[in-house]
Amino acid sequence: MAEAVARAMSSGEHLLVQAGTGTGKSLGYLVPALLHHRRVVVATATLALQHQLVERDIPALLDAAEHVLAPGDEQRRATYAVLKGRSNYACLHRVREGVPDDQGALVDIPEGTMGAEVLKLRAWAEEESERGGTGDRDSAPKHTDKLWRQVSVNHRECLGAAKCPYAAECFAERAKEKAAESQVVVTNHSLLAIDAIEGVPMIPEYDVVVIDEAHELSARVTQAATDELSVPEIERAARRSQRHIDGNEADELTDAADALRDALDETPPGRLDSLPVSLADALALVRDSARALISAFPKEAPGGQGGPGGDSDPGRTQARGWVQELYKTAERMAAHVDSDVLWLAERERNRGGNQLCVAPLQVWGPLRDKLLTEKTVVFTSATLMLGGDFNSVATSIGLKPSERATHSVDEGAGATGPAAADSAAGESSDKALPWRGIDVGSPFDYARQGILYVARHLPPPGRDGLGQAQLDEISDLIDAADGRTLGLFSSRRAADAAAEALRERLPHLTILAQGEAQLPELARLFVEDPHACLFGTLSLWQGLDVPGDTCQLVLIDRIPFPRPDDPLMSARQRAADKAGGNGFMSVAATHAALLLAQGAGRLIRTTSDRGVVAILDPRLVTARYGGFLRASLPPMWPTTERSVVLSALKRLAG
Fold first, then answer.
1. How far is CA 269 from the centre of its chain?
2. Where is the Helicase ATP-binding domain (predicted)?
3. Residue 76 has what DSSP assignment?
4. Which terminus of the chain, N or C, has less C-beta within 10 A?
């Protein structure tokens, strides 16, 4: 893998590398990254991997390879930095000046227990500033999201380095400066998307980007390009602006919020293929009112900085930033272009009521035009080959199967067929973008270490959740395993129903359910109790690492297809059908294959792990698309024989 990554970096060809759990893939790209002659960015999907790279992998590598990278010369030691979104750093302006209230006036610490917690965070931030620390949320005292908002700002609330009196000490600015001096910069998918695709400069100039956890890239880029609009948000922006202007423009924005509320009340939730007249008019009103309000803010006096003795008013800067963000979102929604998907999401009244959401119909085009055409990109993950080849993932990130430089069998050559996949990718950049794909294998002997059991005798899952047959099967499997089970469910309702039923049937076992405590706490309890089971939904499918005897049975209740009423997925599926492709296979089946592979991957985490992945959905072996899904899973020994699996679990438990 290291040699392939080095070749890609020197040749400029893009590279897809499937590297299973336990291969040490971070070293496979960090070694060539440190040897490369220009800056390399490493983008991850999760903070956990970011933390692992910066705190463990890179320092260990630099120490081990010092005699090669910088023999006898400490000054030549390779440098690295981590770069996160602004809201991940404490803001010294907010710490020292206070938090704006609903009208935008700065207020001091809240009363009660929360005030004491805020004081702790403020004291920590000041200590970080004095010692030259990072001010990073990960190193802060224990806190909630609500507490962290008392000492941090998002991008629209930030005054900017030119106006903030504390810019010289700013943690976020220091992180950017360190990144600009480093050979390797570790960041996340979202920040990379904002920098490369939206064109907002967030990352210092670089030559190559390595995208780890690349199976999540499309979803993270979509998330970064999704905007939301709610009535309370508009009303709050109007109130914050009122004290900074002389006219009635803030009142007009409030009136526009009322019009939007009326229009939303008349609009049924779900995807909006066409804009109802009342909603179109209300969005135009919000857009125009926001634009007028932006113009009503007084021009700032030249030369002054904010804060004590400065000319610039931080409350005004932040209020104006809020309104500008509202204007951009309302303008995008009112335009209702074919390249966007607009929908109304249901929310409780006490959470602000229903809100409008808009997301890109696809992200492969912007990825191709703005990232792949400009930079050399290495994509890596344990799950890049879906259905036995790279075509599905390559197409989703903007690469065409016909552009692949080699098509050898050991590199997973195209079962989907280049022409069909190219058609699904559509047309974007005319420039050919050659790429290679390699599977570097796994240190695990899946056929000996794991069994893939499909409960063929069960009825296909229905819309009403878990039936009696499924609950009986779950109970028998867990009883045979004597606990030690990770239950991955397609919905919170199914996970809760299974937990409730199993507590009654198997009272001697500990049944933990997602939502009953924070995930790290649940994971700790799961590991500590040899007879515990942990049931949950999506965050457990991808984010849990529990090697050893803790987990010897992974239960999956059904194939995790997206919901038929999911606005974005259904729109993408329909668009693929219109383009002449197979929308179900390219969207729904690909989504399910990726999650199944990630879920099944929870079982075998070391060379000594043993166990069973049990899928309670017979469609995996009876439906035509089942072969594609099975080819996406680790190559465990397959069976549909219930008695064989129960015996194997009992032997493991013994």
1. 25
2. 1-263
3. G
4. C
Whole-angstrom distance, CA of residue 601 vs CA of residue 613: 9
Phi and psi torsions of 370, nearest 5°: -100, -25
Q: Give me Rg for the CA atoms of the chain.
A: 26
Cα distance between residue 564 and residue 337, in whole Å? 23
Q: Of 109, 165, 424, whose CA–CA distance to 313 is shortest?
A: 165
Give, as one character, the DSSP assignment of residue 636: P
For the sheet with 355-360, list strands across it.
227-229, 355-360, 340-345, 270-271
Gap between the Cα atoms of 153 and 163, Å rounded:
15
Q: CB–CB of 531/483 below 8 Å?
A: yes
Q: Give bridge partners of residue 302 from the DSSP assignment.
A: none
Half-sphere exposure in the Cβ direction for 481 (13 Å, CA) = 30
CB-neighbour burial class of residue 621 (10 A; exposed 0-12, middle 13-18, buried 19+)? middle
| Cβ-based neighbours of 363, under 8 Å, separated by 6 or more | 197, 218, 221, 222, 225
Pairwise CA distance, residues 523 & 546, whole Å: 8
**Among residues 233, 175, 225, 182, which one has the least CA distance to residue 200?**
225
pLDDT band at 423 (very low <50, low <70, confident <90, very high): very low
- Bridge partners of 556, per DSSP, are 488, 615
Per residue in 138-166, pLDDT (tens digit) is 888 888 888 898 899 888 788 888 888 89
How far is it, in rounded angstroms, from Cα 154 to Cα 145? 13
Alpha-carbon distance 117 to 141, whole Å? Answer: 9
Place of tokens 């933990």: 512
Q: How far apart are CA 287 and CA 284, in angstroms?
A: 5
Q: pLDDT per residue over 465-483, tens digit each? A: 899 999 999 999 999 999 9
pLDDT at 188: 93
Q: Give 438's DSSP letter.
A: E
Question: What are the two backbone dihedrals, phi and then psi, of residue 160, each rounded to the nearest 5 degrees?
Answer: 95, 150
361: left (phi over 0), alpha (psi -120 to 50) or beta: alpha
Determine how many CB atoms are found less than 10 A away from the CB of residue 261.
17
Q: What's the CA gap between 506 and 416, in Å, rounded?
A: 45
Indicate the helix (H) or strand (E) that contains 614.
strand 611-615
Give all domains of the chain, ordered by start, each with its CATH number.
2-79+182-220+363-439 (3.40.50), 93-169 (no CATH), 227-353 (no CATH), 446-653 (3.40.50.300)
3-state SS assignment for residue 611: strand
Q: pTM of the prediction?
A: 0.88
Exposure of 434 by Cβ count < 10 A (0-12 exposed, 13-18 middle, 19+ buried)? middle
Q: How many other C-beta atoms can be found within 10 angstroms of the C-beta atom of residue 440?
A: 16
Strands 376-381 and 208-211: parallel
- Closest by CA position to 475, among listed 61, 483, 155: 483
- The residue type found at 490 is S
